[in-house]
Each structure stands twice: as structure tokens, then as C-alpha cells.
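Q: How would the C-alpha cells look for this protein?
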Amino acid sequence: MTEAVKPILLVAACALVDADGRVLLAQRPEGKALAGLWEFPGGKVEPGETPEMTLIRELQEEIGVETKMACLAPLTFASHSYDSFHLLMPLFVCRRFWGTPQPREGQGLKWVRPRDMRDYPMPPADAPLIPFLIDLL
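A: Here is the predicted structure in C-alpha cell form.
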């Protein structure tokens, strides 16, 4: 049996890593889909943007940190089918950024060691990315 054709949603995500090897997780705010779940910062890739451009824009808008394209290293990606769309999400690692993350969109923020990420409920597309970060960090 073949799965119904769904639109593909391209979203870029970033594992922002601090000097202690912890990764920043953001909690989806109330009123958004999957509210309360923890995820990697990032967002929808807009027309004409590369995933790297999206992350530079989204990190500034969502949490007030700046980075550069050269500081974003691709690590892996998620491919997950939700009810109404198929998500394709490259995950980048960023160790060089400027500014202190601030919750600009009402989300919770927490620095977490990769081995402890399973203690935080995540969307189905994000959770399979944890082992890659455990191996890296």
C-alpha cells in the first residue's frame, strides 16, 4: 500500500552548543501545534532561503543570538510524516554564536546535555536526532 502524497515542509533546526557541551532546547509555547514539547530552535525555510539563511534569521528572531553561515555545520536530518504534511528537517550544529539566548516568543529555553535529552518530551521528528548529538558531543 502506498502512502498518500503530502506536501513537503522544509524546516531547518539548530543544535546550539555551549562551551560545556550542552545543547539549547526550546519549549513550544501554548497556542502552537505540539505546545509544551521541547525542540531544537529553527523554523520554516522561506522561498529563496537556504536552510543556513533560515537559521541565521530564526535564531535572531526567536532567541536573540547571532551566528554566521560558516559557523553552521550540517550533522544529520529528520524525515517524518505527520498527518497533513511530510517534514524534512536538516539539523545543523553551531558552536560559535554571539549573544545570550533569550525567549523572545514566549517559549521556555533550557541548556541540556545530549544524554539527558530523552528526559524532555520532543516532537516525533526531533527525538530520533538525539543519538547523533550524543555521539558527537
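Residues 51-63 form the longest helix (13 residues).

The radius of gyration is 14 Å.

Upvote if useful.
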